[in-house]
Design goal:
By secondary structure, the chain is of the alpha/beta class. It has one domain: Rossmann fold (3-Layer(aba) Sandwich), CATH 3.40.50. It is 44% helix and 17% strand. Strands 4-3-2-1-5-6-7 form a 7-stranded parallel β-sheet, with helices on both faces. Strand 3, helix 3 and strand 4 form a beta-alpha-beta unit. The protein is globular, with a radius of gyration of 16 Å.
Length: 190
């Protein structure tokens, strides 16, 4: 089974040096390791991940905040290149974020700003597996502290600064969770 892995990250360059290059490698690794890439169909980190996935022959699906292709291009000024399919949600950014996160088996955070933080917290609340590509800057640097303040633990969250290792850890954890959910439940007999 191919897992759908969303890449969430900054559309602007508020990232650490090399973050876009690492995002490209994340997308490439998702494709090489048998996953399908989901993004918010935007510029910056998601666009670089999309390029990486396509360079490796992978599948890339974008979920747009726009209601149509015309709105996607003219109103939101977003790209259409490198995506195999764009789903025009018509739900603006916050609605698109929710749909993308729920459609994914796992979410990878690279750099980021407030939208990335929204996608991270949604993935956390939805009990999705989350990978954090460390050393990329932005809200990525704050996630560990947010988790400490929230006092909810780090279950289903993996951290790594290497894209290949991060994707491998993420897929392994998705498989473990999948097996646990499908395992028969034992009931006590009275």
């Amino acid at each position: 089974m191919q897992y759908k892995i969303a890449v969430s990250g900054s559309a602007e360059n508020n990232c650490a040096q090399g973050a876009f290059r690492k995002s490209y490698e994340v997308g490439r690794q998702i494709a090489l390791q048998g996953g399908i890439l989901l993004t918010g169909a935007t510029i910056g980190i998601p666009a670089w991940a999309t390029r990486g996935a396509k360079a490796a022959g992978g599948i890339s699906i974008g979920l747009s905040p726009a209601v149509s292709k015309q709105s996607h291009i003219k109103t939101y000024h977003l790209p259409v290149k490198y995506m195999d399919l764009i789903i025009y949600t018509g739900f603006d950014y916050s609605g698109r974020n929710m749909l993308m996160t729920r459609a994914a088996d796992a979410v990878i955070v690279v750099c980021g700003r407030i939208g990335t933080l929204n996608e991270f917290t949604t993935a956390f609340e939805e009990k999705r597996v989350v990978g954090v590509l460390t050393g990329t800057g932005g809200v990525e640097e704050e996630i560990d502290d947010i988790l400490k303040i929230a006092r909810r633990g780090k279950k289903n969250i993996v951290f790594d600064d290497d894209p290949a290792r991060l994707v491998a850890k993420l897929i392994k954890l998705v498989r473990i969770n999948e097996r646990q959910k499908s395992a028969p439940k034992h009931r006590e007999v009275a």
